[in-house]
Design a protein that fits this description.
With about 500 residues, the chain is mainly α. It is about 70% helix and about 0% strand. The protein starts with 17 loop residues before the first helix and ends in a 12-residue tail after the last helix. GO terms for molecular function: prenyltransferase activity.
Length: about 500
Amino acid sequence: MASSTVRRRQDSPAPVLPALVSSAIDSGAAERKDALPRKVASLLQARCAKDYLARACFVGIFITENIMHAIFFDLEVDSMVAPALAPLPREVAVCLHIVHIVFGLFGAIFVLVSGFDTAGRTALTKGTSMMLVFMSTITWTWWINRQGVPYWELDPHYFWDVRCPAEKRNRTVHILKNISIMGALTLLQQMAKYEIEALPVRPSFLEGLVTALRPWSFAATLGVQFVALAVLQCLLHVELPGYFAVFALVLSIMAVQAAANLVNSYRDFEKGIDSVETAGDRTLVDGLVSPRTLKVLAAVSLLWWLCYFAWSVVATEFHPIVLSMAALGTFLALGYTAGPAPLKYLGLGDAVVFICFGPGVVAYSCAVLVGRVPWEAMAFTVPVTLLVVATLHANNYRDIEVDSRAGAKTVAILLGRKASLHYYSVLLAGAHVGALVAGYACSCIGATASLLVVPQSLWLCMRIRRDATLRTQDEETAKTMMMFSVALSLGCGPHASAKVTVD
């Protein structure tokens, strides 16, 4: 949804006339740009065909390998990844193999892109980080714990011993090779970081696109979808239409969230709410991308969602839930900050976020995938949604003063500081209690896995009362929401169901 659910933002002290807003924004952005270092040629930028060829040779194997992983996805999950992660359920193996493919593929692409962008060293640091995750996880599942047989249990002989079996020698070579590649990736990453420290430059266009899209805010969508899919497949044993259908659904929901984020950024910038001095969203105030580019990104994201929306309506033969929930979600997402009466500033932000990230999106997802909306899916995703609302409230609680001066009416402002703290604690407690209630109602003893996150929730309740840590409270709440979602998803695994009886 909007960036305020997962990113820190602050608003300007008071509204001004539209003409003055435009003038102030233009001059402020210009001053901000002048204050930033100008672009310089990066030492890591490719300058000739040899440089591009070297990059292509280095990451080409990663791209090829991950394409093969995607083609033989099910086979590799069943024969390699799942045995290496036993006794964890197969769904964990599926998730990890998706991480293998996505991180390896996109990491390699980022490294290639870094040769074209004058500030591509940022792309290089991000790309190498993703490739390091790929290399570490693939090393464990494919070589250290290959097919569930740990390397150290193969044979008592060392790999240099002539009595060492061929299997152990082969695995040793691949493990050492992967360690060498991780060393090379780390070296590249450190070179890029050292150059960033020595030669700071204005953020590149690529960085501006990432900042504008705010991919880190997608955690709110992913957490709810993780739990909903786990309930459908593991707890209710409902057959899903396939990986492609699930991926297309999740990506489309993320697209409408991205559109809402972009609309939020543009509207706050246009109204003068985001200022150079106080804005948490730096996309437009720092000139990372132009307003026109932001509009194009919003249009593309919205078009992607509308195409999937139209397809889903036709594919489900105009299912009333699909049609109504998608239309409602689109209206609320765009009306959060756009329109004559932005819902965000009318005290309706919490309700909008709860509907869009909870019952609304879950009902739509279930209807598209399986043609019905099981009440169990609703019961298990409501606790996660409460943590999403808590993330928004943490942001609004921190910004009570600046929001008040801007004329906004958030729930935090309506409640006041003392009651807002109690409200935040109730949201966290309600998530844990709700998970246990859902587990009891659905005879799923695995729901108790959510209790593993209780210490984290207690820590959040303490840190929100400290001024020194309040600035990042929304970010930490979002992280806790993801931990809670993963724990609850694993709790819905195939061995988590048990008949609950009362003596």
